[in-house]
Amino acid sequence: MKYDPVKNVFASVIKVIPFLRVLFYKLLDLFFLRSWYVRRELKKLRSEFGNKEICILDAGTGFGQYTYFMAKNMQPCNISAIDIKKDWIEDCHNFFNQQKISNVEFSVEDLTELDYSEKFDIILCVDVMEHIPDDKIVFQNFYRALKPNGYLIINTPSVYGGSDVHDEDEESFIGEHARVGYSKEELETKLHPIGFKTHQSKYTYGFWGDKAWRVGIKYPMLLLNFSKFFFLLLPFYFLITFPLTFIMMFIDFSTENKIGSGINFIAQKKV
Q1: DSSP H or E segment with residue 197
Q2: Of 56, 91, 97, 264, which sees the most CB atoms within 10 A?
Q3: Total domain count, the chain
């Protein structure tokens, strides 16, 4: 049972019917707790720069969800949105052109070969690093790409049940992961020697967030893997379960988790 095939079904739908993309973004923001955390921290960091125009790198833009949010909510800014998947980049480029969003540039790039020098004020990397075996070279590339005092936001599964793996022999439900996830200590071990310092670290998807993810995301995804017929039943499923999952996500979002299956880590480039 995999998460990625179902994700690709949604991608094919918004590709054929572009006007559904904005609705799709809003649903992702509502149903995925990680988006709650990422958007909150982006807004906080934007306030650090006052009214100054900033330059942002969306490192692994995927469907363009966070690029769209930043283009709308972090003005004035210029955004470089990159991904290794050409079809995703082309879809996003076409959609943003249709929406007349002019402060975003899309390009196909490999993070292990990233070659920028002190260009960005903020680098956002959401659910990407767990897919990359050679993470140290990517972190070094991020460091070079950031301006002095610039910020790197990493959102990724953690070692505490990240990727929904709880045993050494267990296969990830998510799939395509090079590692289960990160701990705060591992990220600091890899980032501090390069020249980063920890600005903030939060574990996400604690007790209540994990339960919300299972009820709101994992179980319906498993049903969709079993049969696409369950697409017809999804509205009724979410109508019943979403009030409960929303409350559980809000509790997680409003409290400090000692551990959690996700981690939102912000590093700052030291001068």
Answers
A1: strand 196-204
A2: 56
A3: 1
